[in-house]
UniProtKB/TrEMBL annotation, chain A:
Heterodimer of an alpha and a beta chain. It comes from the Bacteria. The keyword Isomerase does not apply. Its cofactor is thiamine diphosphate. This is Pyruvate dehydrogenase E1 component subunit alpha. It catalyses: N(6)-[(R)-lipoyl]-L-lysyl-[protein] + pyruvate + H(+) = N(6)-[(R)-S(8)-acetyldihydrolipoyl]-L-lysyl-[protein] + CO2. GO terms for molecular function: pyruvate dehydrogenase (acetyl-transferring) activity.
From TrEMBL, chain B:
This is Pyruvate dehydrogenase complex E1 component subunit beta. It comes from the Bacteria. The keyword Oxidoreductase applies. Residues 4-179 form the Transketolase-like pyrimidine-binding domain. Keywords: Oxidoreductase, Pyruvate, Thiamine pyrophosphate. GO terms for molecular function: oxidoreductase activity. InterPro entries: THDP-binding, Transketo_C/PFOR_II, Transketolase-like_Pyr-bd, Transketolase_C. Gene3D superfamilies: 3.40.50.920, 3.40.50.970. SUPFAM superfamilies: Thiamin diphosphate-binding fold (THDP-binding), TK C-terminal domain-like. PANTHER family: PYRUVATE DEHYDROGENASE E1 COMPONENT BETA SUBUNIT, PYRUVATE DEHYDROGENASE E1 COMPONENT SUBUNIT BETA.
Length: 330, 327
């Protein structure tokens, strides 16, 4: 198979996607064991979006997303063990046990969260990009949301201003076809979500989200446009989550056949096939990667298990930067 | 000392802070080319240019979010709402995003932003333009709430709000923008979280804030004619509430009347009453009383507006009740 991408890229994609897949499988298992509580939304099936993104962007670029945030957070560089500890609610988690599954953050990795109000982060993403433009940097902000968020007023208000002010932001709708249990078809007459960009004179494109290659190419084009002061782009990346909306969702609103159809296009299998077809790695080398990932996930669980809970004094910390804020305590 | 208008005091605060810190900028509806719906930002576009004085579309949710996002990424936005009535559309950004950014991120991302604009009623504006929101925002951990009554406090507190590392809700009033007051030429700041005794007295404590301070001070003036010495406290900051200043005053006067423009249920007076009964129970010689806006929607007719809002005669009458001077 001919590909413009080389061996390193494919091996990177394989390793990253396998980490996201195995991390989420483990998270789902631990949720069942009640080690992880709260709401928990898994990224399984959508890994090619994170993989294609990461090879197309720079370290200094910003990411913000919704509550299905584990995959993008790990991809952007938050260590798996800090993510697992956060799912446990431990003090060593990426937000010290204060955010949980839906609110992963890392200032160091320029990961602006995990946000829980559908569509709320669309405007925040434009604001993060506004700050980059104001400071005259060349950093691009990648602002993720789901197909459900595309129905919020926030999207329309933000698109309008982002184009008006030519903000260096790439809006990415991870269209996994279901807003919780409600299909795209049941919420809008406009099924091609990327066409919403037309109303604001913003370039928009539809992307195959089961393909790392296609995701990379589309994001690369959009990132270049933003970096060269060409303004925002809207990408609708068509992807699929194999699991329910959250851990409590049996996903009865879709057929087994539909799920199987997407699993046949599984991006990890696809990338692995490209690697083996091109003889970029031996069976032993692939097995070594698999083992490395297995260990990384196991170590993340061990780290989370052995980490301490946050001290109860943390209740009154990180609410204000102001250390002398006089809380009402009785 | 020189005398300037309320709107000029606010403008000077923003101008001085923008000269001091290049990361401060102003955005909102009509703030730039139109020079501000109430002329608060008059002339600022000329000095600071379109990069820092930014007209927005009528999209409160969207531009509030852009402000919050920019604040989380290193800038210090001042977001002007034409009125806090319209800011209800942006409440999700203030409550769910600005107020929670620091805690959700485990202390990594702060949100130094000021949301400001006129609050409360302003004549016969009808139900949707006449609401006072201090208690709504005062309920939210993660933000600070300032509500000012005169040009001097407005300037000193707005400068502090802009420098604050946390999100600040800053409330003004349409009917006070033309008020004149003494403001020194030299720079000063007023700390957030400190109430101010605007008139010292010994017989009764009257607590108020924002434009209801006119009612409180007017009532104190009337009461003085009857030989009643009222101490009038201007809260200035609603969250955090400087209850110590109130309690100290009540320990001296033994009586408390609160005048506010909130609706009565779960208002600022509710919280003050709780705090004073807890901290100064044995000092009270009469029940704590209050005058709020009517527990209704604001209507249009002038008679109904007058009946809805607190006023001097009713405040005087209530003070006399807690003084047991009338039945």
């Amino acid at each position: 198979m001919q590909t413009p991408f080389g061996k390193e890229t494919y091996l990177y994609w394989y390793e990253l996607m396998l980490l996201l897949r195995r991390f989420e499988e483990k998270a789902g298992q631990l949720y069942g064991m009640q080690k992880i509580r709260g709401f928990c939304h898994l990224y399984i099936g959508q890994e090619a979006v994170a993989a294609g993104l990461m090879t197309a962007i720079n370290d200094n670029d910003n990411i913000i997303t919704a509550y299905r945030d584990h995959g993008l957070a790990i991809a952007k560089g938050i260590p798996a063990k800090e993510c697992m500890a956060e799912l446990y609610g431990k003090a060593t988690g990426c937000t010290k046990g204060k955010g949980g599954s839906m609110h992963f953050f890392s200032k160091e990795k320029r990961f602006f969260g995990g946000h829980g109000i559908v569509g709320g982060q669309i405007g925040l993403g434009a604001g993060i990009a506004f700050a980059e433009q104001y400071q005259d940097t060349s950093n691009v902000t990648f602002c993720f949301f789901g197909d459900g968020a595309a129905r919020q007023g926030m999207l329309h208000e933000t698109f309008n201003m982002a184009v008006l002010w030519q903000l260096p932001v790439v809006f990415i709708c991870e269209n996994n076809h279901y807003a919780m249990g409600t299909s795209v078809e049941r919420t809008s007459k406009v099924l091609d979500i990327y066409r919403l960009a037309d109303a604001y004179d913003m370039p928009g494109d539809s992307v195959d989200g089961m393909s790392c290659e296609e995701v990379h190419k589309a994001i690369d084009r959009a990132a270049r446009r933003a970096r060269e002061k060409g303004g925002p782009t809207f990408l609708e990346i068509k992807t699929y989550r194999y699991k329910g909306h959250s851990m409590s969702d049996p996903a009865k609103y879709r057929t087994k056949e539909e799920v199987e159809e997407y699993k046949e296009q599984d991006p990890i299998n696809h990338v692995l096939k490209t690697i083996t077809d091109n003889q970029w790695a031996t069976e032993a080398e692939i097995e070594a990667i698999n083992e490395k990932i297995r260990q990384e996930v196991e170590e993340s669980v061990k780290f989370a298990e052995e980490s301490p809970w946050p001290d109860v004094s943390e209740v009154y910390k990180d609410i204000y930067v102001d250390q002398n804020y006089p809380y009402i305590v009785d | 000392m020189r005398t300037i208008a309320f709107r000029q005091a606010l403008r000077e605060a923003m101008e001085e802070e923008m000269r001091r810190d290049p990361n401060v900028f102003l955005m909102g509806e009509e703030v730039a080319q139109y020079n501000g719906a109430y002329k608060v930002s008059q002339g600022m576009l000329d000095e600071f240019g379109a990069k820092r004085i930014i007209d927005t579309p009528i999209a409160e949710l969207g531009f509030a979010a852009i402000g919050v996002g920019a604040a989380s990424n290193g800038l210090r936005p001042i977001v002007e709402f034409m009125t806090w009535n319209f800011a209800v559309l942006a409440l999700d950004q203030i409550l769910n995003h600005a107020a929670k950014m620091l805690s959700m991120s485990g202390g990594q991302f702060s949100c130094p932003i000021v949301f400001r604009g006129p609050n409360g009623s302003a004549g016969q504006l009808g139900a949707q333009h006449s609401q006072a929101f201090e208690n709504w925002y005062a309920n939210i951990p993660g933000i600070k709430v300032v509500s000012v009554s005169n040009p001097y406090d407005a300037k000193g507190l707005l400068k502090s709000a802009i420098r604050d590392a946390d999100p600040v809700v800053f409330m003004e009033s349409e009917v006070m923008y033309g008020d004149m007051g003494e403001v020194p030429e030299e720079e000063y700041l007023i700390p957030i979280g400190k109430a101010d005794i605007k008139r010292a007295g010994t017989d009764v404590t009257i607590v108020s804030y924002n434009k209801m301070m006119k009612v409180a001070l007017g009532a104190a003036e009337e009461l003085a004619k009857d030989g009643i010495s009222a101490e009038v406290i201007d809260l200035r900051t609603i969250r955090p509430l400087d209850w110590q200043t109130i309690v100290e005053s009540v320990k001296k006067t033994n009586r408390l009347v609160i005048v506010e423009e909130q609706w009565p249920m779960a208002s600022i007076s509710s919280e003050i009453s709780y705090r004073v009964q807890k901290e100064a129970f044995d000092y009270l010689d009469a029940p704590i009383r209050r005058i709020t806006s009517a527990d209704t929607n604001m209507h249009y007719a002038p008679t109904l507006v007058a009946a809805y809002l607190p006023d001097v005669p009713r405040t005087v009458s209530l003070v006399k009740e807690v003084m047991y001077m009338k039945k």
